[in-house]
Hints:
The chain is mainly β and 213 residues long. It is 13% helix and 54% strand. It is built from three helices and eight strands. It has helices spanning 2-21, 103-106, 109-112, and strands spanning 28-41, 53-64, 69-81, 89-102, 117-132, 139-153, 158-172, 188-203. Strands 1-2-3-4-5-6-7-8 form an eight-stranded antiparallel beta barrel. A hairpin with a 4-residue loop joins strand 6 and strand 7 (158-172). It is elongated. The model has no long low-confidence stretch (mean pLDDT 85).
Amino acid sequence: MKKSIIYILPILLLLSNYLKAQSRYNQFSLETSYGYSGAISPYKDAFKSNFSGFTNLNIGGRLMFNENFGLRGEYANDRFENDPGGKIGIYYNRIGLQAYYNVGKLFGLPYILNENIGLLAHGGVGYTRARPINASQSEQIGNLIIGITPQLKLSERVAIFTDVSFISNFKQHYRFDGSLISEQYKPTIGFHYNISFGLMVYLGKNRYHADWY
C-alpha cells in the first residue's frame, strides 16, 4: 500500500501542476443530448421494423487537458423497439470513456468563423448492459465508439451541438429484436449508431473555455 502511494503521489502532483498551468481558460463542461438510435445489425429479416427511433439519451462530463485534447465520461441509454407497440426489442445502458480532439482548432475554424463554430472528434470504449424486453436476463457487452461533434457557441458559457457516433458491440448474444442469436450462445459483433442534438454548459471561473480559447 505504501509503495503504491509513493508511485501515485508524484503522478497526482504532476497532474495538479499541469492543470494549474492551464488556468487561463475553463476546462470542464457538462453535456446532455437526445436523439436517434439506429440499429444496423443483427435483427431478424422477418421484421419490417428496423428497431430504430428517437430513443437515445446521453449525459456526460468532459475535461479538456489543454486546447486540443480531453477526456469525457458518459452514460447513454438506447431503446431498440419494434414499431408500433414496443413489445419486442432490447434496452441498452452504457457507460463509457472517450478521448476528444479539437479538430476545429486544427483547421482554424474558430478564427475563420468568428469563434462560433467548432468541431470535435472522439473515440473510446464502453461497457453496456443489454436487456431484451420482457426478459429478466441481461448480458454484458464491450463497445468501441467513434464519432464527430459539430458545435455552435451561443455564449462563453453555453454551446449547442450535434453528435454522430458509430458503436461496435463486441460479443453480442441477442439481436436488436431481443431474440437469441444462437442456441449454443455463440456471440457475434453488432453495430448501431446515434445522431443526437444537445447542450454544453461550460463551468469555471475564467471567461473562455478551452474549446474556444
